Amino acid sequence: MQTNVSIAEGVYLIGVNDRRTALFENIWPIPYGVSYNSYLIRDDKCALLDTVEFGSEGAYLDRIEEILGERELDYLVVNHMEPDHSGEIGTVLKRYPSVKLIGNAMTRKILLGYTGDLGDRFMEVKDGDSLSLGKHTLHFYMTPWVHWPETMMTYESTEKILFSADAFGTFGATDGAMTDALTDLAEYREEMRRYYSNIVGKYGGMVQKALAKLSSLDVKTLCSLHGPVWSRQAGEVIGLYDKWSRCEADEEAVIIYASMYNNTAHMANHIADRMAERGVTGVKVYDVSKTHLSYLISEIWRCRYVMLGSCAYNADMFPLMELLCNSMLHYGLKNRELAIFGSCSFGGGGVRSLRKFAEASGWELMCEPVEVTGTATPANLAKFEPLADAVAERIKAGRK
Ligand code: FEO
Q1: Distance (Å, rounded) from C-alpha 129 to C-alpha 140?
Q2: Which of 54, 153, 245, 346 could be 87's S-S partner, Cβ–Cβ 3.0 to 4.6 Å?
Q3: CATH class of the structural domain 5-245
Q4: Is 108 in the pocket of ligand 1 (CB under 6 A)?
Q5: pTM score of the predicted model
Q6: CA of 163 to the centre of ligand 1 (A)
Q7: Where in the chain is the domain with CATH 3.60.15.10?
Q8: CATH superfamily to which 250-399 belongs
Q9: How far is C-alpha 319 from the chain's CA centre?
Q10: For the range 186-191, what are the long-range contacts, defined as Cβ-Cβ under 8 Å and sequence gap of 24 or more?
């Protein structure tokens, strides 16, 4: 059982860590686990903000009772209905039969499919509505599609806390350090970007709208549904979400290749070597068959300069490269600069399909694509000189 954490007077974090699940949403690896956060405010009226995933380890109800004692729970605010946060709503409803659920019209619609009609146990709120609990006052802001259509955020104006649903969340369980008084953003930055890009990345425009709507609030503490509570570094975390949702990248480069018999792999290594030779450091190289898609998406979110290489496969690009390209189209990431290359034995297809991706994505091609027939002979490798020159020049100019 985890410990309840007091984050302000009368405000508690009662989240649980999950290190058992291998794949978040049954698709994204979480080698460092994840936390599902729930918050409880004890005041003249008591309010729970979101629950945790059904069956999460830890005696969730015991922890609520530890804070409330014999008192009743008056409200359950449902900021987000995705089951990693709504999974224990049924349990709370059974234990506290008079609790009122607070959400918006879309929350009610989605809840219907999970709990049935709650009648007058559901209290609908609209954008800007407030609710006094005593010393604490909750203000509700609709932030649709960050990350589901019903998503809203709740601002507590006495302690200046924003309960932000998935926003400002991260993969990674909290190893005894539930707030940034005890940990540092540096510990989470990579996993936060992987979480943002894979889970919320498609909704960057809606994240921007939410940030604009909330910009006038004085936020002292960010209480996301995943990861630590951010106070000391709240501004930096908001800054990262702002940057990523604007598709802004670092002046960095990544090479991702698909290769069956190491010919395209050899070319990827050759390009990386030529980059280093030209003074471009920090280039990362990944094999699409070895590194999980989620890390590749996160790396492309990080880097402005993206080099994609594919062997030909059934007169097309390699299937896992196709998955990566289709994922990027699905997320709609913009503002990247692209180089493409590949190899074939006859007929081609890899580079041809990557050209189509370049057109569909709108990413600017930094140079003419290079496709080699056969293996990495010195004559074939020499064909990469113009690509290396053009890309290195771009990166060096961008870094100035
Ligand atoms: Fe953490 Fe969209 O749920």
Answers
A1: 6
A2: 54
A3: alpha beta
A4: no
A5: 0.96
A6: 13
A7: 5-245
A8: Flavodoxin domain (3.40.50.360)
A9: 24
A10: 188/227, 188/228, 189/240, 190/298, 191/32
